Amino acid sequence: MLRVDVTKQLGEFSLEAAFESQGRVTGLFGASGAGKTSLINMIAGLLRPDRGVIALDGETLDDTSKGIHVPPHRRRIGYVFQDARLFPHLDVRQNLDYGRRMNRLAVDPAQHARITDLLEIGPLLDRRPGKLSGGERQRVALGRALLSKPRLLLLDEPLGSLDEGRKEEILPYLIRLRDEGIPMVYVSHDAAELRQLATQIVMLKRGRVTALGGVKVLA
Amino acid sequence: MFEISPAEWTAILLSLRVAVVATLVATPFGIGLAWLLARREFWGKSILDALVHLPLVLPPVVTGYLLLLTFGRRGLVGAWLADHLGIVFAFRWTGAALACGIMSFPLLVRPIRLSIEAIDRRLEQASSTLGAAPWQVFATVTLPLALPGVLAGMVLGFAKAIGEFGATITFVSNIPGETQTISSAIYSLIQTPDGDSAAGRLVLVSIVIAMSALIASEWFARRATKRLHGN
């Protein structure tokens, strides 16, 4: 369970959001500039709230009143960025292995095979990110985040930089992932996308939560 | 005519040794300082920045004199180092290396700083969400991506160190076999009658070394661009 109750002032923009999520896929829905990315950056620990609490499965990640801030590398929260952010100096195999090495996890060939099969990135393993298409890059980024064995996966408009055809290419993988049961927070401004993926919706407008509930709130 | 004499070889090898040691010792400090200047905001940052660049604009003889005052036998730091650690800089080749290291430091730091500044910080964020502690982010993302800049800085620093003259001769004098580098050997030769051909040979040697360093530095800079584009 994810519990968020935070405020953050970013220049002129103020973000004040509170929600609790039990759903497997929490869709964070809103127009661009609504504060979605700032909000998941706070969940990831990349941005510190001015005030408030963030807790995941009973563990407090942020509590400004107690001076608690768990840094991103200790949160075990995976993050798939809109722009993939693969490491340009590493090939696909090394990118995928990065999280395991940083967390000093044992080599897990079964898991590795499962993820590369699921995302069909086996043939790309020896390539550099510069030689991948946008869709391939996004699949590798997804695999890289999953192989760090996160307890929650954040996805910030993972289809946002792709054209329609490419979106159709990635969406089935995301649906497979959801059915695998890993909890996700999925940010999008596309209601159709969220209807296919999310089990619960948090609607965000100009820094405030305006609706909470099942996918029907998107209507 | 192009027969390099043993005395000239001594000067060339000493110059190489001084420049290599100066560059290798200065590099870790250069990387640390470049990172600090590129990535951190702190009180006194502009003063530190100016201090790093000072040897570039100060007359070399002034830098050499300040080194003599500080690291000489009776200098504040020099006396302490000699008494406690047995390290002596004055009139030794190690002093030449210290002078060269300081004189070349601005040239070493600059390309490293620029290459760190050019790194997309969002990659470092991605690294931390994958479980990398700050030092791991530095070791596995920042440093590898800045490596071509580090190598370029080392080459430039080396080229500067091998040609350094003013601060070195002021600080450690011009003792053949101990502190006489290519530059100070040329200086002595052109003041001696019949020294012209020997000076000419050393001039050629230093031109070759400097040119190779600049070409190498250019090559590293091109690699840096390629690397950051992920090819």
Could you describe the 3D structure shown?
The complex is a heterodimer of chains A (219) and B (231). Chain A has 219 residues and is of the alpha/beta class. Chain A has a domain at 1-73 and 182-219: Rossmann fold (3-Layer(aba) Sandwich). Chain A contains six helices and eleven strands. In chain A, β1 and β2 (13-21) form a beta hairpin. Chain A is globular and about 45 Å long. Chain B has 231 residues and is mainly alpha-helical. Chain B has one domain: MetI-like fold. In chain B, 78% of the residues lie in helices and 0% in strands. Chain B is built from ten helices and no strands. In chain B, α7 (134-163) runs antiparallel to α10 (196-228).
Short synopsis of the structure:
Chain A has 219 residues and is an alpha/beta fold. Chain A has a domain at 1-73 and 182-219: 3-Layer(aba) Sandwich (Rossmann fold), CATH 3.40.50.
Provide the CATH architecture of chain B: Orthogonal Bundle
**Uncertain residue segments of chain A:** none
Shape of chain B: globular
Number of helices of chain B: 10
CATH architecture call of the domain at 1-73 and 182-219 in chain A: 3-Layer(aba) Sandwich
Task: Write down the CATH class of chain B.
Answer: Mainly Alpha
Q: Indicate the proportion of strand residues of chain B.
A: under 5%
Helix content of chain B: over 70%
Overall geometry of chain A: globular
Q: Within the largest sheet of chain A, what's the order of strands? A: 7-8-9-3-10-11
Question: Which fold name is given in CATH as the topology of chain B?
Answer: MetI-like fold
CATH superfamily of the domain at 1-73 and 182-219 in chain A: P-loop containing nucleotide triphosphate hydrolases
Work out the strand percent of chain A: 25-35%
How do the helices and strands follow one another from N- to C-terminus of chain B?
A: HHHHHHHHHH
Cα gyration radius of chain A (Å): 17 Å
- Output mean pLDDT of chain A: 91
